[in-house]
Amino acid sequence: MMNTVTAIRPTPTSGFLETLLAGQPMLPASPLPSINKLRTDAVDCLGGLTMPTKRDEAWRFTSISPLTKLSFQPARSAISLQGADVEHFYLEEATTRLVFVDGFYAPHLSSMVSDGGVMIANLPLADAARASVIESNLGRYVAVSNNLFAALNTALLHDAALIVVARNEVLSAPVQVLFISTQAAVASCPRCLVVAESGSSMTLIEDYVSLQDDSYLINPVTEIALADNARVNHIRVQRDSAKAFHISNCAVSLGRSSNYQSVSVALGAQISRYNLNVVMAEGAECAVDGLALIKDNQLADTHTCIDHAQPHGVSHQLHKCIVGGKAHAVFNGNIMVRQGAQHTNSIQSNGNLLLTDKAQVDTKPQLEIFADDVKCAHGATIGQLDKDELFYLKSRGLSDSVARNLLTYAFGAEIIDRIPIPSLKHQLEQTVLEQTSRKL
Amino acid sequence: MIYQDSKTILEVRGLRATVNGIEILKGLDFTVKSGEVHAIMGPNGSGKSTFAKVLAGHSAYEVTAGTALFEGCNLFELEAEERARAGLFLGFQYPIEIPGVANSQFLRLTYNTMQVQRGNEELDPLEFDDLVREKMKLLEMSPDFLDRSVNEGFSGGEKKRNEILQMALLEPRLGVLDETDSGLDIDALSIVANGVNQLANKNDAIVLVTHYQRLLNYIVPDFVHVMDAGRITKTGGKDLALELEERGYDWIAAERQAASEAMAGEVVA
After folding, report:
1. Terminus of chain A with fewer CB atoms < 10 Å: N or C?
2. A 374-393 residues inside an 8 A Cβ radius of B
3. ipTM confidence
4. Among A5, A95, A11, which Cα is nearest to A44's?
5. How many domains does one find in chain A?
């Protein structure tokens, strides 16, 4: 209706882009004009963007050519999933849940909440009273002008998980947003917006799962806005099918004295990429931890940028990769301390464990400091298991293989341990245990 | 304690060992019988800790000559884990931290490994919990230690107590404690020493590797050995430790020098 498709500049590698965008004009218009504008602006942006290649600095270590060779159709809605099919993904601690199947909201599997204090809903059904919150936040934190995948997600924006926690509200139970992939050879663009108003507190579990083993493209965008003094725990688990392509962007904005704690775990996908951008106001604190546990021919790429834009910020980052088979892990962690961001305290560390001769890791921790009174430290290690640690365990009677498995498990468990959801922690511990004891 | 009917637990003869091609142990002889407590003292770099690690089977050390019989087995033919299962325990100078693995989980895993080796039933988590809590009383350890990750964030004294707790659980024939006293304040030292004293018995033996005489005020050894330049150069009773404390180590080297010169003189004569 109000959308016009501008010509997409054809490039040799954008086959699936054209297919996906062909359906874009058929998207139902949103009652919120700003959303329609977001979409058309994103379509315009896409006209000027090309598929990234290894010649782009941000994609230097990650070739997405296996992805660009494939074609993906837009996912179809109306999947008749029943609760029994997906119940095993439900986390017992989460009393509220939003479920999206191939990007489409599944109301019969979800529980929405809308009262004075909190709104947990799907975008088209969002409470009119919250329209201004949505309009002033959605699309505001993630940059699309230089990011083809974020632009594609925004151009195709329809359903989206919306969580708004009002001022001083404390959500004691975590909210699980579950993205389930069920169809092969399709692309879906899940979207999530969390607005934590001043003094509020909540825990978000963003969970990507699959009911099939085939190839598909999932291209999520998550935006999280923390107002002053707000607190958000963000747990992200990517357990897509081993043939999937998962290209994900997350943008987090931290208000004054707010606190963002995140743990991101990447287990699935043939190629996965997670871009996380955190922008911090004065006195804000964040902990950004991650674990990639990959094997066979998997590639997991994590790019983070923690931007200390104002003084007195505190950031801690521990990112780990356990790489087996011929898998390839990439970590690019940028800590930016801007001029005037005095008294910033930032510690970043990246540990990598290579389990085989063919496993590979590229790591690039970066500190960019433009203020002169700051405390910053960063470092990266790449290695095999420590001989002294192995000796310690063997001197207690444990066999070489048990000792190796235990140390590998412990390497990953240090991150899993930081997840404040016991049932999820337990599940992931089991996954790490199974994967590390199979020696990948 | 020295017993009349004691059995030989460990007999080391002419041991030579290298690390990175450098010889550290240069012909060491050492015998331990059941019930005995031995102290190995010596200046820094004399090879005390190397000896402890060579006994336990650290892969960085290469044995180039000599033999070690442990309970009648050739120790150097066994892997580190086989030595542990045969009843050799090494208390580490610097115990490693294993973030992500609960101490209780780790202790039960090692305990059950040893139980299987000895043909005993494994304990389930509840049964083990009772056992370990009982043993922890020996070392005045709070039950909180069970839930924390192995050694992670433990103070020096807490790590050493955790080592002795493992010895208490694994019930080795021979416990070799490498610098268990270093870095401990007097309270922690007396707790650790008290734990070790309660574990000492007629059938097993303990070797204390230490730099300081102080530990031996708390754990009284039957034998004190002085190690110098990769060999045991003097052996005495507990009084030797006091003499070392007072006079240092130089006189032993001088005494040895004089003895070898005298011997050389005799040969010339």
Report:
1. N
2. 386-389, 391-392
3. 0.93
4. A5
5. 2
